[in-house]
Amino acid sequence: MAEKMVSISTAKADFSKLVAEAEAGDEIVLTWRGKPVAKLVVIADRPKRVAGSLRGQVSIGPEFFEALPPEELDAWDQ
To answer: Which of 33, 50, 60, 75 is most buried (most C-beta within 10 Å)?
Structure first.
């Protein structure tokens, strides 16, 4: 992975090109007046959520379905 320093003014002009370079695996360091201030990097793919993947690991007791006490219900109305 290559690291490339680019001024913000140059990044404005070449943004699409820099995004393509980041997608290819390069790290683009944006500079302001010669000092590094930000990085343009590719976002790693997140694993897809699988429905039911926590089955058996989480349980909800019957108290979850009981009515809330009046003082808690009043707090929701505020």
So the answer is: 75
